[in-house]
Specification:
The complex is a heterodimer of chains A (about 170) and B (about 200).
Chain A: H1 17-21, H2 34-61, E1 70-74, E2 83-87, E3 94-101, E4 104-109, E5 120-122, E6 127-130, E7 135-138, E8 144-146, E9 155-161, E10 164-171
Antiparallel strand pairs in A: 1-10, 2-3, 3-4, 5-6, 6-7, 7-8, 9-10
Chain B: E1 5-8, H1 18-24, E2 36-39, E3 48-51, H2 60-64, H3 91-95, E4 102-104, E5 109-111, H4 117-120, H5 127-131, E6 137-140, H6 142-145, E7 151-158, E8 161-171, E9 178-180, H7 188-202
Parallel strand pairs in B: 1-8, 7-9
Antiparallel strand pairs in B: 1-6, 2-3, 4-5, 7-8
Classes of the chains: A alpha+beta (about 170), B alpha/beta (about 200).
Chain lengths: ~170, ~200
């Protein structure tokens, strides 16, 4: 295209590139014409449309993921108010298990939904806290109590089977 | 443009300031004159000099502009800074060897003589040249100016810097260029003292 061609007639090759690109002469300026801008806008929006269509189609045909069953702890292994860290469903997904009362265990993904710092359990305030930006999550359902996170923590669904706690599913909302 | 060139002859200037008044009439900068008007040796004489922008071939003001706001167009006119781009940093004001650009503080924009581009681009003469009674500022054809005793030149030396311009200055006939070393004029007072001493000694 014409506007992309370098006009080297006036400036010597020893001149720095910025002098050529930001010439003091109006005639040497490389303008983008209205037609080129329109073309760029149309093609870019078409690309965005196709990309969104692709995401839509992929989500329509995707199956709901199934998670494996994994024994995470024995009942009575951890005291009331104690925690146990484990990984589920893969070795890279760190989770936290909290025994909130005698018969109640809750488990959440340990990854803060803001910037993926590891959350920990604060027994004093009975909540999950992210130390990076002071994001606090409710221990009851993982919802955000304060701070920058916008989504609640993914909850690990636990089942009690024959004296063992088994992780069976992850619930994200 | 249209076969006309701008010629400045400070020796013809009578200090009437008509050019300043005419320039102020312009609608693009009403009330602000873009003419540079100086008295030479104010203490000793009433000699004055009015001059416009010289429209350099390689405009220093545009080269130092960090915002790319000063442009030289196809007709060789260096325009005032582009309003959306000018950041009012005064780089051009400090850099111009002729002291032409003016920082308009209320507008926060550099403005300078654009040789009345609205007029000259359609074949009319600039405001200042139309009113100058002694034709110290003349916008005429080269053959008309050749009748004068002085010779037009557009080459200036500021120390090491050589500047060629669109506007011509009327120089003595034997001179091809105007050479100035600004440093020479920085200690003017001391020079004068030395000259007075020299006169006293010789007398």
């Amino acid at each position: 295209m014409k506007w992309q061609q370098r006009n080297t007639s006036r400036t010597a090759p020893s001149e720095p590139l910025w002098k050529e690109e930001f010439s003091v002469r109006t005639a040497d300026e490389r303008y983008v014409t209205r037609r080129q801008l329109t073309k760029f806008l149309v093609l870019t929006s078409f690309g965005m449309f196709v990309g969104n269509l692709w995401i839509l189609l992929r989500s329509m045909f995707s199956k709901t993921p199934s998670y494996p069953q994994q024994t995470v702890a024995r009942l009575g292994e951890i005291p009331v108010g104690g925690v146990k860290l484990f990984t589920y469903p893969t070795r890279d997904d760190h989770c936290i298990l909290v025994r909130t009362s005698e018969n109640e265990h809750v488990s959440y993904s340990q990854k803060c939904t803001h910037l993926s710092c590891a959350v920990y359990y604060s027994r004093m305030d009975n909540r999950l806290e992210c130390p990076c930006h002071k994001g606090f999550f409710s221990i009851a359902d993982g919802s955000v109590l304060q701070g920058p996170p916008s989504r609640p923590l993914p909850k690990i669904i636990l089942e009690s089977r024959g004296g063992e706690l088994v992780a069976v599913d992850i619930k994200t909302s | 443009m249209f076969g006309y060139e701008f010629y400045i002859d400070p020796s013809r200037c009578i200090g009437c300031r008509s050019c300043l008044q005419a320039c102020e009439e312009c609608e693009t900068h009403r009330g602000n004159s873009m003419i540079n008007f100086d008295f030479i040796e104010r203490r000793e004489s009433i000699t004055s000099a009015a001059y416009v922008c010289w429209h350099c071939d390689e405009p220093t003001c545009a080269q130092v502009c960090p915002a790319d706001a000063i442009k030289k167009d196809e007709d060789g006119i260096v325009h005032s800074s582009l309003k959306p781009r000018c950041i009012a940093c005064s780089n051009c004001v400090l850099a111009c060897p002729f002291g032409i650009p003016k920082m308009m503080e209320p507008e926060q924009q550099m403005m300078k003589c654009d040789m009345c581009y609205d007029r000259t681009s359609v074949g009319k003469r600039p405001m200042c040249a139309t009113v100058c009674p002694s034709q110290a500022l003349a916008y005429v054809r080269p053959e008309e100016i050749a009748r004068r005793r002085e010779k037009p030149t557009n080459i200036f030396y500021f120390g090491q810097q050589k500047i060629t311009t669109k506007v011509f200055i009327m120089a003595p006939a034997q001179r091809d260029a105007i050479a100035l070393d600004v440093v020479d004029y920085m200690w003017e007072e001391q020079h004068e003292m030395a000259a007075t001493e020299h006169q006293q000694n010789s007398a």
